[in-house]
Each structure stands twice: as C-alpha cells, then as structure tokens.
C-alpha cells in the first residue's frame, strides 16, 4: 500500500503506451550520467545523448567521409543510366504514388518526386555511407543492441513530404523502437526543399489511430486530424519549424517520434542529394516481413545488419 508519509515511489516511465528506447524513459538523463560515471560512454557521447533526449535529434557534423560520399554519388550516376533489376523507386505518376523498377532518366524527373529505395541492398558504397562509423556509434548507444537498417530513401531533389512522425508510416514490431539518419550528399542550398523539423516534437502528445494504433492503417481516414494535432501541438508550445542546412557529410539522426518533412522547393533547379535510412534494434523487425516479405538479414559489419522489403519483381 502506498504510504504518504514515506518517500513517494519513482517508477521510470515511457511517454508512450508503446514503450520505446531507454532514451525515451523519464529518467534518461540519470541513465546518461550513470553510463558516464561507469565509463560506458565518454563526455562527447554524453553531450550528444543529452541533446537527443531533450530535442529528439542530433546533428553529427562531418560524420561521413567526403571520399565515401563521392564514391556513392558516382555509383548512383552510373547506375541511373542503366538501372539494374533491383533498382526500385517510389514516385508520383499518373496522378498517384506508386513503386516500380527504376528507369533511365528518373534522376532528372524531379517533378515525379523520385525516391530510390533500399539502395544499400545492392550498392556497397551506399552501405559505407549509411553505416558510417560516427552514425552507427551513436545509434548503437541509443539501441544498446546491434542495428538493423531496413528502409532507405535516396533523394535527388527535395521530397516536399508533409511534416510527420515516422511512427505513423514506418512500422516496426516494437512501434517506438527505431531511429532514422539523414545524410547530406552535397552542401544543401536554401530553397532546395530542405529537411524541416519541429525540435522536441518527440515529446508531443501521441495520436492514436482508431483510438489504439501508432501507425496509420489501410482505410483509416484520420490523417488530416493527425496533421492538425501535430501543428497545434507545436503552436501551443511556441515551437517553430527549423530547416536543416547541412554541409556534405553531415548527418541528422532523429528519434521515431520527431516530426519532420521536406520543405517546399522554392528553386526547382536545385538538387537536394541525400539519403534517409531507418534502423531498428536487431531483436525487433520491420512489419513488412509479415505483410509482403523481407529479404534475409545480412551482416554488413560489426553489429550492423540490413534487410529490405521484397519488391514485386525480385
Ligand atoms: O528527406 C525528406 O524530405 C523526408 C524523409 C523522411 O521523412 C523519411 O525518410 O522518413
Ligand atoms: Fe519521415
């Protein structure tokens, strides 16, 4: 029985009814100090983790070698002229969004919002970028487990995607346990459709689709209400949209619930070469494994793995 004359009990708690990572616990700051004192992390790690816990993201400046990015950009250029069977894109065509095999010329077709999917499955230079040591070091600290990359989007141009939380669209067996990285593959210019986000929006009240679900499901018509709540939460807290204007090689890492999107493209001649990648701990898995099937999990390095959604023609 609770005794009001003794110290009140303090049970660590997650914000979400779906749990999360240790960084989502309300004692995360104490856990960071504990890890630091125990020698599990260094002061630089602690600073990044404190920032991540409070703001829902971190920026790792110069996390990816210039040479690795150049190699990746060159491979993409070469591949785009004669795309292999595995090259799959998502794009806006004939009035709707859909997935299909990549065609030569897709790189230039910026009006179609072309996203090249899961390029890490067939391009070593992509893996070098998405598993850059500084990026994976940080994600391993947050997961405390091996890392499974499971969805990447390569953008030639800005996505202009409405501001959203990935928990709504990226389905993981443990819905809150994942993060994403976004690597600038060139110096990003103002007006190119920069990545935009609401700082600390991972702390906004959670929206439950159908009253019970973190992700939007087929036939659910609550997306408008969801977007309205997201912007209202920002307004109520006086939080404004912030644009990310990185240099080539800078990496932005966001937590599953950080609200982000692609801002409007003001200058259509500008490119916004970048790759976004989602990662979950290896003991969890992307839900597409159930719905459409996943490729085998492949080890890419020390504690880093990848898999992909099976594409129709594979
Ligand atoms: O790069 C962007 O504009 C948004 C990407 C995004 O939302 C994602 O990959 O989850
Ligand atoms: Fe997203």
Please compute the radius of gyration using only Cα atoms: 20 Å
**Small-molecule components bound:** 2-oxoglutaric acid, fe (ii) ion
The SSE order reads HHEHEEEHHEEEHEEEEHEE
CATH superfamily: q2cbj1_9rhob like domain
Assigned CATH class: Mainly Beta
The major pleated sheet works out as: 10 strands, mixed
Low-confidence stretches: none
> What is the third-level CATH name, the topology?
Jelly Rolls
In percent, how much strand structure appears in the residues?
Answer: 15-25%
Give the domain tally. Answer: 1
Report how far the terminal alpha carbons are from each other.
59 Å
Mean pLDDT: 94
- Helix content class: 10-25%
Write down the overall geometry: globular
Number of helices: 7
Notes on the protein architecture:
The protein is α+β, with helices and mostly antiparallel strands. The protein is 24% helix and 20% strand. It contains seven helices and 13 strands. α1 packs antiparallel against α2 and α3 (66-81) packs antiparallel against α4. The model has no long low-confidence stretch (mean pLDDT 94). 2-oxoglutaric acid is lined by residues 153, 155, 159, 161, 166, 180, 182, 195, 260-262, 274, 276. Fe (ii) ion is lined by residues 164, 166, 260.
């Amino acid at each position: 029985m609770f005794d009001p004359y003794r110290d009140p009990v303090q049970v660590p708690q997650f914000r979400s009814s779906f749990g999360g990572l240790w960084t989502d616990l309300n004692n995360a700051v104490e856990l960071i100090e504990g890890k630091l004192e125990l020698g599990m992390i260094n002061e630089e790690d602690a600073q990044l983790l404190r920032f991540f816990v409070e703001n829902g993201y971190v920026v790792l400046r110069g996390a990816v070698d210039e040479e690795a990015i150049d190699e990746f950009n060159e491979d993409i250029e070469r591949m785009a002229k004669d795309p292999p069977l595995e090259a799959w894109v998502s794009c806006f065509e004939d009035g709707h969004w859909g997935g299909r095999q990549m065609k030569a010329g897709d790189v230039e077709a910026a009006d179609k919002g072309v996203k090249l999917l899961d390029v890490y499955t067939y391009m070593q230079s992509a893996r070098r970028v998405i598993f850059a040591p500084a990026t994976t070091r940080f994600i391993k600290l947050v997961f405390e487990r091996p890392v499974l990359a499971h969805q990447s989007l390569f953008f030639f141009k800005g996505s202009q995607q409405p501001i959203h939380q990935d928990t709504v669209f990226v389905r993981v067996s443990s819905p809150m346990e994942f993060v994403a990285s976004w690597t600038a593959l060139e110096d990003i210019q103002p007006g190119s459709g920069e990545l935009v986000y609401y700082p600390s929006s991972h702390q906004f009240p959670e929206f439950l689709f159908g009253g019970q679900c973190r992700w939007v499901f087929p036939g659910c018509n609550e997306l408008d209400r969801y977007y309205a709540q997201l912007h209202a939460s920002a307004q109520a807290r006086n939080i404004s949209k912030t644009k990310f204007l990185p240099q080539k090689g800078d990496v932005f890492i966001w937590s599953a619930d950080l609200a982000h999107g692609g801002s409007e493209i003001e200058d259509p001649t500008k490119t916004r070469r970048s790759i976004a990648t989602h990662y979950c701990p290896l003991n969890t898995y992307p839900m597409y494994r159930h719905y459409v099937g996943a490729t085998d999990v492949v080890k890419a390095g020390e504690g880093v793995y990848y898999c992909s959604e099976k594409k129709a023609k594979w």
